[in-house]
Task: inverse folding
């Protein structure tokens, strides 16, 4: 795997003194899908804007495909397609014209056949001669993607691609990203939705208050940080935690089950001891099951820790 | 050079002109015809001649300048302001395109449109007055240079403006008075001596004078001064735009 994007020590301080990014280091491999998760105001959009050339850095360097994004801005930007968060489109233009315009801006000769291919990929082909103002919100978002893809970029940035879109379109968007991955495009997306990161990404970065808290392989992250719950059904159902079990992190579910929460990467899960003590306390177990915590729980924990 | 990008911007802007044909071309022609009727017919019948040229013909260069200056400024200003306003400017900033290429696209389109309107007005004027152009090459040179310089000026305004009011402010409050007081409808030799001196501080005087000289061979100031004035104005605009793109003023945060 080769590194296609390298962000090194990038900071951004706005004129008013607000520090939006506090030393970001990031390495993106060619062909991967990275999801950047973070709450509002974490610096996700600022980071993308800087990489794409819309904002400037206060310090630090960025290379895209080995090209410095300031010195060799033409070569660097040529590799990038950006789908912004806001739906910014010329309302009076037709879909075809506005995509043609984008292709031209990126120095590509006119090629309507290629544009039509992209429109088909995005299920936009039947709207190609429609004016932007007549399209629905979801369709407009597709137009933004078409504009970003029309020069065949190596890296695609999707800034909150599914913010405010309906469930069906969100699923469509995931399919589109999967198709792009097959063609070898590197995708970096930001999102609020954990399920989106879980569904699409190979790696996940968590960003909060201008810092990357962690960046890791998705499955490993869930495994490493995952908390698990052991659910113990008893007969008869319990209504209070027996005295002998006070040292365990136990709660009682609505159904009268005991729920034991433990850390899978801790030194000891404490399960063996718990089970022995349960028997001593005279409880009769009828079933056992475990539940893995979702990325959302992990994310909330991380951001809370960071705030603390 | 990213020629495809320049062409893309140019075509996109020109398409806007043709989409809004009535407002873009018909309205300046109509307003110019009204000027001819009011100034040429009503007032001209009492003035007769200015320096050997019939009054109706005398105001033609001034009228063309009035429209060309306003059009090139407002077109270029709107051209770059609109993407800022609707947010599509992100695309210009993230594309592999230099500031010079962006300017070439927007200013080229605005200047082309102003030039077209200028020539249409010239054609319209033929229906009202007898015109012979003594120095046609100079006439075109002045016209083209004026279109380009004021389109550059408009581009700066479009970047500077943060709302539609500011966008209208400069053309309305600066350009229109300067053109009206710059000898569009009179020769400055017709003014009292003190006003003649004051008028010389109005840069538009030099443009109209040079342009009128190309038509009739008569001028308020010498041709050299006219050329110098337009060169200085253009250089100042170019330098300002260069600074805007280096610093990212009101473009890159």
Result:
């Amino acid at each position: 795997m080769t590194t296609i994007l390298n962000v090194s020590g990038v900071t951004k301080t706005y004129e008013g003194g607000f520090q939006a990014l506090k030393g970001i280091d990031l390495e993106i491999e060619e062909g991967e899908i990275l999801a950047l998760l973070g709450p509002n105001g974490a610096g996700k959009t600022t980071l993308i804007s800087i990489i794409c050339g819309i904002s400037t850095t206060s310090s630090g360097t960025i290379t895209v495909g080995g090209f410095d994004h300031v010195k060799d801005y033409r070569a660097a930007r040529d590799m990038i397609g950006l789908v912004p968060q806001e739906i910014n489109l010329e309302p009076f233009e037709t879909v075809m014209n506005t995509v043609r315009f984008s292709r031209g801006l990126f120095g590509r000769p006119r090629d309507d056949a290629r544009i039509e291919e992209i429109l088909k990929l995005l299920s936009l082909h039947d709207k190609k001669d429609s004016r932007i103002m007549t399209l629905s919100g979801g369709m407009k978002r597709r137009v933004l993607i078409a504009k970003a893809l029309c020069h065949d970029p190596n890296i695609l940035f999707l800034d909150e691609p599914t913010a405010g879109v309906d469930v069906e379109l969100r699923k469509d968007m995931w399919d589109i990203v999967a198709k792009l991955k097959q063609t070898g495009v590197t995708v970096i997306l930001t999102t609020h939705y954990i399920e989106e990161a879980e569904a699409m990404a190979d790696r996940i970065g968590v960003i909060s208050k201008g810092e990357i808290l962690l960046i890791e392989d998705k499955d490993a992250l869930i495994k490493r940080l995952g908390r698990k719950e052991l659910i113990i059904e008893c007969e008869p159902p319990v209504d209070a935690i027996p005295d002998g079990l006070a040292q365990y992190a136990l709660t009682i579910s609505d159904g009268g089950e005991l729920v034991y929460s433990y850390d899978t990467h801790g030194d000891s899960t404490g399960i063996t001891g718990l089970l022995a003590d349960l028997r001593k306390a005279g409880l009769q177990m009828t079933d056992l099951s475990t539940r893995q915590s979702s990325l959302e729980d992990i994310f909330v924990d991380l951001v809370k820790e960071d705030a603390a | 050079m990213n020629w495809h990008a320049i062409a893309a911007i140019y075509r996109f802007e020109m398409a806007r002109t043709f989409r809004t044909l009535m407002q873009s071309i018909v309205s300046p022609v109509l307003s110019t015809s009204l000027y001819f009727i009011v100034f040429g017919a009503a007032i001209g019948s009492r003035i007769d001649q200015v320096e050997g040229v019939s009054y109706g013909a005398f105001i033609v260069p001034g009228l063309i300048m009035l429209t060309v200056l306003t059009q090139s400024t407002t077109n270029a200003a709107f051209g770059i302001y609109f993407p800022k306003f609707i947010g599509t400017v992100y695309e210009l900033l993230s594309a592999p395109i230099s500031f010079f290429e962006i300017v070439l696209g927007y200013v080229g389109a605005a200047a082309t449109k102003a030039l077209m309107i200028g020539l249409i007005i010239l054609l319209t004027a033929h229906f009202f007055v007898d015109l012979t152009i003594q120095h046609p090459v100079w006439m075109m040179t002045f016209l083209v240079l004026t279109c380009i310089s004021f389109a550059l000026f408009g581009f700066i305004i479009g970047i500077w403006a943060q709302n539609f009011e500011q966008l209208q402010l400069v053309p309305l409050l600066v350009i229109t008075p300067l053109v009206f007081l710059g000898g569009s409808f009179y020769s400055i030799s017709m003014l009292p001596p003190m006003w003649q001196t004051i008028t010389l501080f109005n840069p538009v005087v030099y443009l109209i004078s040079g342009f009128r000289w190309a038509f009739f061979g008569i001028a308020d100031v010498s041709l050299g001064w006219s050329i110098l004035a337009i060169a200085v104005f253009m250089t100042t605009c170019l330098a300002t735009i260069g600074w805007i793109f280096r610093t990212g003023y009101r473009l890159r945060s």
The radius of gyration of chain B is 19 Å.
